[in-house]
Amino acid sequence: MNARAEILAKVRAATQGLRARSDAAGTSGAVTGAAARAGQAGSAVAGVAGTGPAAEPSMPRPGDHRPNGLRARPRRTHADVVARFAERVAARRGPLRHVTADEVAVAMAAMLWALDARSVAVPADLPPAWLAGLETLDGVRLLDPAGGAPEAADAAVTGCRLAIAETGTVVLDGGRGQGRRALSLAPPHHLCVVHADQVVGTVRDAMERLDPYRPLTWLSDAPDGRTLGVLLIEG
Amino acid sequence: MRFADAARAALADAGARRARRRAAAARAGQDDPGGGPPGRELLRQAGAAIRDRTLRELGTHLRALETAVRDEGGTVHWARDAAEARLAVSGLVPGGAAPAVIASDVTREIGLAGPPPGPGTETAVVGAGFLVAETGTLVAADEGLAFPRTVVAVAGIEDVVPRWSDLEVLLRLLPAAGRLPPAVSTRTGDLHVVLVDNGRTRALADEAGRAALRCIHCGACRDVCPVYERAGPGPYGPGPAGPIGAVLVPLRRGVEGAMEASLPFASTLCGACADVCPVKIDIPSLLVELRGRVVESRRRRPVPTPEALLMRGIAWAMADEQRYERTLGRQARWARLFARDGRIARLPGPLSRWTEARDLPVPPRQTFRAWWRRRS
User: Whole-prediction pTM value?
Assistant: First the structure.
């Protein structure tokens, strides 16, 4: 018998009859002494066959862990969600700037200057307006996006797919303005531009919007010595 | 080697112990001072329920995962034990060079090590956090997954997650405060998966084993365990270190070996691990259950252990009232011979192991029974 067939057969033998168990029995982690003492491999399964009707246990669905009180509350406005995101980013001490669309170029230049970034890696399809302010800085050069080797850069500038308010996370999926994953992770500093309308409230909202077939990178905090900065475009 | 013997060297290393304590404190310090978002307890319940359901229907999910990974152009390999897993991995890594490795419990278990992947990595072996059966997605709580072109994902068969949406709960259970791990990366397609059994089906066959297989490898129990803080990862053998390792290794490999039999006793049963476990594994109860199995298996040996002989003797003495009283009086008189200043600091022969770490009070001149008879 090959390994696949053997493992699947053992799994089937081990879990046979378990689907019929009541949920309560299934989730109780504690093994009571007497039952467990007797409970060598076979007897647990044998004991189950006699217990009750084969009802599919009512499983909590993901997301059902929210207390009812929180569900009943009036929906938070989008402004609240964006404020919550900013709060979370500030709580992990990441650089954060609130800007309007017109101020992006200036704020970007200021943030890169503050990080002392001499060379900046950007994806080829980054909106050019975001970097328009770099001309005002001395000695900052953009790495050729096609040239590769982003690890030589001091900082990377990217957009994102979405951001999660609850956890202060930015999620990149390699789409427009984000480039390859190594680009945002190889340089020590990463500035991520987030539009206010890209911010969602909860991890659950994010899971619904994200495409599992894209290469996703969720960044919630930067390791020591590195920076994950956020430029939040509002209004 | 027994846990206690293997731990001796580590116990002397105060520097490593301090480093472990600092690392655990640093991880705890990342938590939100506000204690995390509301509903942590409900999140744990949802996580335990997801894991329970997954294990109950494990065969179905494994086949679904295999189909999904193949649909996306990847391959799935099955390994009965660590040697088969290493063989499968080496067959998937071109050139036979040592690949970059994102370490996890399962890569350590099968004995794979290598540098973390960086820019320019061609092939990496990734210890999977989760494998999503619905989409064939590899999830790793590590940003290193971003770099390699080809990925060989090594996972225990229990690391499968039925649905994409289940990740919402499971990812948030990895750090203690219900946030998200600092970095999570996912990859679907262009993926070689090696599914490792290595005793997991054995654990799956009984209730205690299924409870332990809920583990999502978050490491929270290690961080709070006083035994792990002192002994370090070494004495736990090739499996996961810390309290969950003391449970999982004997469940996967049986309790006949000296190392496996000693692991359930490598705990003070303080209960801290059960308090922090994000999927509500009642580790102390499982340890007690396994201690029972160790004693049970020793009882079947042709030559009884000294402990078993002693217990048999005590059982015989206590079975009869007069015999019990006589033995008690005699033992008390003997014990008083070893007393110094009201304590017994050292017992002779094999009994000295009991007094290695603690004193006994001297038994009184008169037994309770004798005193009671005189009083009435």
Answer: 0.82
State ipTM: 0.83
- Inter-residue contact B6 to A35 (CB < 8 Å): no
Say how far apart CA B362 and CA B360 lie, in whole Å: 6
B242-264 confidence digits (pLDDT tens):
999 999 999 999 999 999 999 99
Using only C-alpha atoms, what is the Rg of chain B? 25
Task: Centre a 10 Å sphere on the Cβ of residue A104 and count the other Cβ atoms it contains.
Answer: 20
Contacts across the A-B interface (CB distance below 8 Å): 205
- Say if the Cβ atoms of B59 and A4 lie within 8 Å: no
The dihedral region occupied by A15, where left means phi > 0, alpha psi between -120 and 50, and beta the remainder, is: alpha
Tell me the helix, strand and coil percentages in chain A, rounded to 5.
40, 15, 40
**Phi and psi (nearest 5°) for B35?**
85, 15
Q: Could you read off the pLDDT of A146-159 as tens digits, one per residue?
A: 666 777 788 999 99
- SS3 call for B79: strand
Partner-chain contact B296 A37, CB within 8 Å: yes
Nearest to A161, CA basis, from A123, A128, A189:
A123
Dihedral angle, C-alpha B55, B61, B62, B64, nearest 10 °: 180
